């Protein structure tokens, strides 16, 4: 079923008020057509994981040597394999640099192959989060420590002060902005952002003091949630920009088009920032959603486990 939903939201001192209204769209044109992404020969269970926003994607799959990494870059698909241990891909940049976890070890794949990322003693592999910047620098956290590995020397790391003693990395923007979530106690979490050259700033949430999360930073907007409300912040301006209850947002692009799942119908939907409405992509069986800057939507087929593209 294809429909259009118009959403409005205002921020008041007491918190967010979200008012949805729906109107039928009898003859909308399809926004895109779903197709399978090519996969390397001889592998199974290929799973799309992340996109760079610039037409480069990464994921993992099962090959003859175990679960390894897959890269879609410059119009071709490559099997990157594994440096040892099953690989779980975390991120990829527009140049095709992939960061992943191989067993308990954080690793990076560049043009010359896999490299181990040095870690301090006691690094918590079960909470590792890794992101790679446009220049190839890698940042990561294990809940207690945050590290930066310079592109020219993955065997060396620099300590990065975390926003709170217990905190997780969620994104690393091309300009060096860091985004994370701190956990002051079991019932509460706070979103934080650190602009280049600055310190950590807590993201505004009105009077809400429960669970706050951050997701992706693209262009000027940072996606996240405040309680059950999906929101966007402008980190540079320091204000809460928008909110909706009806859609669980998973990614957005630099043009401020968002992709997510309709909480009521389970359909994959896209929506522009502001009041432009929600458009269904007529699938309820796609997860791991991402969207490129050109509007191409990526995801994993829940039935086959294969990677999909809608363009």
Characterise this structure.
The protein has 311 residues and is mostly beta strands. The protein has no helices and 30 strands. The protein has strands spanning 4-12, 15-23, 34-36, 44-51, 57-63, 66-73, 76-81, 87-92, 98-102, 105-110, 113-116, 129-132, 138-141, 146-149, 158-160, 167-172, 178-185, 188-194, 200-202, 212-218, 221-226, 229-234, 239-244, 247-252, 257-262, 268-272, 278-280, 286-291, 297-301, 307-310. The protein has a six-stranded antiparallel β-sheet with strand order 2-1-27-26-25-24, with no helix packed on it. A four-stranded antiparallel β-sheet has the order 3-30-29-28, with no helix packed on it. It has a four-stranded antiparallel β-sheet with strand order 4-5-6-7, with no helix packed on it. A hairpin with a 2-residue loop joins β20 and β21 (221-226). It is globular, with a radius of gyration of 19 Å.
**Strand order of the biggest β-sheet:** 2-1-27-26-25-24
Beta content comes to: over 45%
Distance between the termini: 19 Å
Average the pLDDT over all residues and give the rounded result.
Answer: 84
Main sheet summary: 6 strands, antiparallel
Structural class call reads mainly beta
Radius of gyration: 19 Å
Tally of DSSP β-strands: 30
Shape: globular
Order of helices and strands: EEEEEEEEEEEEEEEEEEEEEEEEEEEEEE
User: Portion of residues in helices?
Assistant: under 10%
Poorly predicted regions are 1-27
Number of helices: 0
List keywords for this structure.
4-stranded antiparallel beta sheet, mainly beta, globular, disordered N terminus, 6-stranded antiparallel beta sheet, 311 residues, 30 strands
